[in-house]
């Protein structure tokens, strides 16, 4: 997404994009990757901005600049209360957008934290960051600002420039405030090719290139989830939708794997009148069909024991399947006993099951 966001600045159909634009982007990338070979005392992205801005201004080249993107503020923000009616209708209008922004903001912030933690070998407090982000966004609304979140691109530049603590992020925000409000005319003259070169560097640095080769060795389900998530995000330009697709696919594959670990086996007593069915694994919607198919209701028995001491009952589908098994055996004249339920399963069964309630046999056709 970071790279795709730069494509309009490289599109020949965009006004102001010429061969000079591509030359400056290439020069910017060269500075970014080669300058650290000389010294790391000064961040190479900063050198790129200074050098390309000096060249464009000094030579009078006609390229797109930050100023072409819109007017920059020249005063500090002031406190204000949003002038919107506080009604239920207003809430219904803004709720879908605010929920989507909140989800995307939290997802990108958590992704950025994971990336920075890996690069710096540290461990950040997820809850603290999320709470701080929410408080900051609420405060921002009262000075006319927009909601924001942790940014992968800016964080990567910060870390690669040597930033390791909160002082670096505070300094970045404070200096940006000074630049925009006090030196807006200078900032407006920064050429867009310089920023495009920096963001391309960020795209290259944040992409996990090893994940491409790992597709051959990863489980097929994991590869499908990753590809589907990436394709959805790129196609929709919406991180929340991409993550939702990935989570849904992961849930489907996980359910399938758990269902494969489920089994039921049985033993017959020496007198041939009692059969014990031992259930092992997770009994839920994906395994109820296998569970029901494991019982032979045509066998003539006096007693049936269903041992679930090695199983866990998760949902209403599994409770209904247990009801069906118990009631079918009782209909054939067998005494049925369910044993070994753990506390959580027993609570669920006591709440939802009907096989021990009056009139349960009449409800069998409903299962």
Describe this structure in words.
The protein has 367 residues and is α/β, with parallel strands linked by helices. The chain folds into four domains: 1-72 and 151-207, no CATH class; 78-147, no CATH class; 212-260; 262-366, STAS domain (Transcription Regulator spoIIAA). It contains 14 helices and four strands.
SSE layout and pairing:
Blueprint: H1 19-34, H2 44-59, H3 88-120, H4 126-141, H5 152-160, H6 166-182, H7 184-187, H8 192-206, H9 210-214, H10 220-236, H11 239-260, E1 263-268, E2 274-283, H12 288-293, E3 303-313, H13 316-331, E4 335-339, H14 343-352
Parallel strand pairs: 2-3, 3-4
Antiparallel strand pairs: 1-2
Poorly predicted residue ranges: none
Secondary-structure element string: HHHHHHHHHHHEEHEHEH
Structural class: alpha/beta
Helicity range: 55-70%
Question: How many beta strands in the DSSP annotation?
Answer: 4
For the largest beta sheet, what order do the strands appear in spatially? 1-2-3-4
Give structural attributes.
55% helix; four-stranded mixed β-sheet; alpha/beta; 367 residues; 4 domains; 14 helices; 4 strands; single chain
Quick overview of this protein structure:
Strands 1-2-3-4 form a 4-stranded mixed sheet. The protein contains 14 helices and 4 strands.
């Amino acid at each position: 997404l970071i790279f795709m966001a730069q494509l309009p600045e490289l599109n020949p159909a965009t006004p102001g994009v010429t061969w000079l634009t591509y030359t400056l982007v290439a020069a910017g990338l060269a500075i970014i990757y080669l300058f650290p070979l000389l010294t790391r005392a000064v961040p190479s992205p900063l050198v790129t901005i200074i050098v390309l801005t000096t060249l464009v201004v000094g030579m009078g080249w006609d390229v797109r600049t930050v100023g072409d993107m819109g007017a920059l503020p020249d005063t500090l923000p002031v406190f204000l209360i949003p002038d919107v009616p506080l009604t239920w209708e207003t809430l219904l209008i803004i709720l879908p957008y605010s929920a989507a922004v909140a989800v995307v903001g939290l997802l990108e912030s958590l992704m950025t934290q994971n990336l920075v933690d890996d690069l710096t070998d540290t461990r950040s407090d997820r809850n603290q960051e999320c709470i701080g982000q929410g408080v900051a966004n609420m405060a921002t609304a009262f000075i006319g600002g927009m909601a924001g979140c942790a940014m992968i691109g800016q964080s990567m530049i910060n870390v690669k420039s040597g930033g390791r603590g909160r002082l670096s992020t505070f300094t970045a925000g404070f200096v940006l405030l000074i630049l925009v409000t006090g030196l807006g005319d200078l900032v407006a003259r920064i050429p867009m090719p310089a920023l495009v070169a920096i963001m391309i560097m960020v795209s290259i640095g944040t992409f996990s290139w090893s994940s491409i080769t790992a597709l051959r060795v990863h489980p097929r389900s994991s590869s499908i989830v990753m590809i589907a998530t990436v394709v959805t995000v790129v196609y929709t330009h919406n991180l929340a939708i991409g993550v939702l697709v990935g989570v849904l696919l992961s849930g489907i594959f996980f359910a399938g794997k758990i269902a494969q670990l489920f089994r039921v086996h049985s033993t017959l007593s020496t007198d041939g009148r009692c059969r014990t069915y031992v259930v092992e694994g997770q009994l839920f919607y994906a395994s109820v069909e296998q569970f029901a198919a494991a019982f032979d209701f045509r066998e003539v028995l006096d007693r049936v024991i269903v041992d679930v001491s090695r199983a866990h009952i998760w949902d209403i589908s599994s409770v209904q399947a247990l009801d069906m098994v118990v009631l079918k055996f009782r209909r054939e004249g067998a005494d049925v006993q369910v044993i070994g339920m753990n506390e959580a399963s027993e609570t669920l069964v006591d709440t939802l099951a009907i096989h021990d309630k009056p009139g349960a046999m009449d409800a069998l056709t409903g299962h």
